[in-house]
Amino acid sequence: MPVLRSATAGSGEAPKQFNQPSRKGKKAWRKNVDVTEVEEGLQEVNNEIIRGGVIREKASEDLFTIDTTGDSKIPQKFPKHVKKGLKADEIINKRSAVPAVSMRKRPSDKTTDGVVPAKRQRTDWVSHKDLARLKKVADGHHENTVAVRDATFDLWDAPAQVTQDPTDFLPEKIEAKVPKSMKLKPLSLLANGKQAPAVPKPTGGYSYNPSFPEYESRLAEESTKALEAEQKRLEAEAAEAAKLEAAAKSAAEADAAEERANMSEWEEDSEWEGFQSGVEDERPSAKQPKRKTQAQRNRIKRRKEEEQLAQHKANMKARRAQEQRIKEIAAEVAEKEKEKALELAKAAEQDSDADSEIGEEKLRRRQLGKYKLPEKDLELVLPDELQESLRLLKPEGNLLKDRYRSLLLRGKVESRRHIPFKKQAKTKVTEKWTHKDFVL
């Protein structure tokens, strides 16, 4: 069976009736009337207004122009010689000729509500105060003068100001701040506070073919150090053994005292305290403290105030005496500083040669870091190991260790402990029961 569909179904137009020759009677009145022609006419008029105005209302001069551009077929014949416009310009030129709505406020009517407006201060004249100020400025007397100061920073070293792109939504990268200690000099670990040389100069006793006096003195020095270290070790062991023995003895005495305390009353010759004295009913012999009276408190308060006043007077007297001797004290301090500077200069001259040589270092008590400075390797060849030939020579020491210890001694690097293996995270291995997930 064919589907019945109206002529206007699916077209998007308003429903309408058939054309009626006359609509004078009431029966011919309908709710929906065919207004297609009226809408088309209005749409056409709106299009003409957008293009520049209604054609019927325009004059002939606006509709017709004199052709002075030439033949329009020339660009088609010679397309290479004609410049082709941009598509963007073509889209922009097709815009409406109707001017945009102005955003400025329209002038209001001349009518008012009868309320008299408040008087405003005139702005087309200068007050006496401003006139006096302008005269002073003209004479060269400025109230706020700009003081010229020397620059405290390098203008060319300042970072460039980069404007942020509004389309960039990522946060700015914050650079790490340089700690203040980076600008300070490294702190030496020597007790005297002097900077140790990077490569100390060895003495003649460190040679593989030394002279006998230098070798003998160095051997005796190292032997003395070894004996002292061994003596300290033995003393520490003896002190530890004595400590353990004393602890064991005190534990035995405590056990014996506990056993005596646990003895019965008939095994111990003791007497009931207070049975024969008969003084329990009497008052204690110690004098009980009494509450101070107001007079005593006032007397103590006056004595404290007098002591404070006397101390204040003594301090002021000493201060006045020092004020009278300010010049003498300043001269004495300056003279002491000069003497101290001369002594330091002499000591530096004397120690300049001694510091560059390898010797015993006295380290400061508070060291850098958590761990102490590693001990130096004993670079000493025993008398029976001395060789006369370089072929049989056995080298001593390690340059890498020496350089590392020198960096630690000069405070360039902090002492660290060697960690051979990194601690791994604990993991637990389990077997997944996948057969439980199997469903028929």
Topology:
Layout (H helix, E strand, L loop, with lengths): L35 H16 L8 H4 L10 H4 L9 H7 L34 H12 L72 H50 L32 H31 L1 H30 L43 H11 L31
What does this protein look like?
The structure is a single chain. Among the domains are: 31-92, no CATH class; 297-358. It is built from 9 helices and no strands. It has helices at residues 36-51, 60-63, 74-77, 87-93, 128-139, 212-261, 294-324, 326-355, 399-409. The model is unreliable at 1-5 and 268-281 (pLDDT under 50). This is Ribosome biogenesis protein NOP53. Belongs to the NOP53 family. Keywords: Nucleus, Ribosome biogenesis.
Concise description?
The protein is mainly α. It has helices spanning 36-51, 60-63, 74-77, 87-93, 128-139, 212-261, 294-324, 326-355, 399-409.
How many helices does DSSP assign?
Answer: 9
Largest sheet: none
Specify Rg, calculated over alpha carbons: 56 Å
Q: Uncertain regions: pLDDT < 50 for 5+ in a row?
A: 1-5, 268-281
Task: Give the strand content.
Answer: under 5%
- If you average the pLDDT, what whole number results? 78
Series of H and E elements: HHHHHHHHH
Number of strands: 0
Oligomer: single chain
Shape: elongated
Helical amount among residues, as a percent range?
Answer: 25-40%
Which secondary-structure class do the elements indicate?
mainly alpha
Spatial gap, N to C terminus: 52 Å
Region (Disordered): 1-31, 97-121, 194-323
GO cellular component, one term: nucleoplasm
GO molecular function: 5S rRNA binding
Pfam families: Nop53 (PF07767)
